[in-house]
Amino acid sequence: MTVPEMFGENVFNLDVMREKMPKDIFKSLKKTIDEGKPLDGSIAGAVAHAMKEWAVEKGATHYTHWFQPMTGVTAEKHDSFISPTQDGKVIMEFSGKELVVGEPDASSFPSGGMRATFEARGYTAWDPTSFAFIKEGTLYIPTAFYSYTGEVLDKKAPLLKSMEALNKQALRILRLFGNASAKRVVPTVGAEQEYFLIDRKMYDARKDLIYTGRTLFGAKPPKGQELEDHYFGAIKSRVSAFMHDLDRELWKLGILAKTKHNEVAPAQHELAPIFSITNVACDQNQLMMETMKRVAARHGMYCLLHEKPFAGINGSGKHNNWSMSTDTGLNLLDPGSTPAENGQFILFLVAVIKAVDEYQDLLRLTVAGAGNDHRLGSNEAPPAIVSIFLGDELTAVLEALDHDVKYEGRGKQVMKLGVDTLPDLPKDTTDRNRTSPFAFTGNKFEFRMLGSTFSIAGPNIIINTTVADTLRAFADELEGAEDFNAALHELVVKTYRAHKRIIFNGNNYTDEWKAEAARRGLLNLANTADALPHFAAKKNIELFERNAVFTEREVLSRMDIMLDNYAKVLAIEGLTMIEMAKEDIYPSVNAYLSDVCDLIGKKKALRLSVAAEEEVAKKLSAANEAMYFKANEIDKLLIEAKECPNAEAAAKFFAGKVIPVMQELRAYADEMELTTAKKYWPFPTYGEILFSI
What we know:
CATH architecture of the largest domain: 2-Layer Sandwich
Number of helices: 23
Number of domains: 3
Radius of gyration: 28 Å
Helix content: 40-55%
């Protein structure tokens, strides 16, 4: 079977719909998909019947409403298509109601206090804009999840709301530029996914990987990524076989898997898809991560998606390449070549600049988490300070506008928007800046701060909403202007001057930039406990309510869920460290010490030198004892953490009190690993894990 024949074979896509549905039903459903129109309830039964017939033909026996609660993973409850008949047999049925609405238990998912245990009712609602698909004999129906009282409990519902807010305001701007043909504007995303592949036996031998997804102990091996020989290097045959199978699994599910390569760290790799509409890209990225783990298992490997599974080498991110496009195929962040498009591009560009500057805190907190705190600011990721990289040319264009001077770049025209136009800008107007959190890369912005486990829904909700809100203000100002071109020019210049502090084209890793950012008044929210409380800032709640994305209650609940998750993750890590330290490392080192002491006695009897053995014994004994008592200290701190009055206090307690002691405990263990004979060490080392495939 060729790739075009294989692609989407397990997806209830437009071609299948066209074949399986009556023409009028297909036309109505396609209008909903293409234009975001409300679903005509009268067609649900016919759509459900067609979907069931196709799924059964493909071997499916069950269906599930597949949704994305605030757990960080997806959720699914499987129901069979069977329905009993009077003669004691069954038929395969699937109604319109079963397609459109499901009812999982809402009290069993994180709700931030919006749902009590006795308030169990929740609903899933079909998202017709994201195609259903078949996986392992079940029809998966992408859905949103909300409570009995109508409050959202998931990541899809607010994402769809933010997309609608952006669509509404972007269309207002397009109409001002005379674009009457576009009926819809959608944000698009391509999410690059980084991951590690290790041998399954290595994974099974490490409690920390099993319980937390990352190694809590591990001394640096003799070789890491110093030689820079893994990045884009030849792919090992075992990994290549995995990637080959993964591509085909993803293609069957309609996922546009495009690029695969070795990443910087040993055992690290990356997969990048082609751009999709944001809610579809979000669904597909979740499905991609699930598929990676499943395919890795078939190859005797384990796929690690944690942001920092190994200390001392690069962690894994998920670069979020964001843009806006019309239903007519126009990318609104493409500089273009005509005067109208160039003026339009500059307006959308400064809208993004303004949005990022005003809501730095929201962008930062969307990537906040215990795992990503290890990664941000390291060699492989941007720092916690949000800034925008535009590149020299676009910055020079905006500076020329700001100072009302001729732009002396590639073009020769005077920079007056709507009258004198931008020069023809090549698609690649910039170099790449891998240290920048939010970089313009030709016709899109690359948000590089996301951690590899993150759903892309959170960051894109924020980007969509903040840009929509900025476009709303722009449209309000321009729609009443007597001279549109003059008003446009004034608005662009005014906006750039007010928000140019967020633009930085240099090295984001330097201490000089940290000092400069502070002088500019940019936020430096170093960890999750510092970042998440900003969610509830008055300006942020007003933003969400103004754009009908979140209510204040929903914002507060999400903040509480994220803070609580941070504390719980660190508590699990702390308990795992205690267990590994006391049950594995401590007795193993003592066993080695016992043998060393026996050897000392034997060598002394023979009047041989024991200086080396005594030094080893003294060093290991002191470190092992110190590690043991550090484990006790963590245990006491975890008990104390339970007394914190709320989630914010608990998060700050873990960040300020628990993490430093965990780091001290690890230091003792990693030091002993380098001194203890290999056969005594209780689990695989970094060198064994990273170079096992």
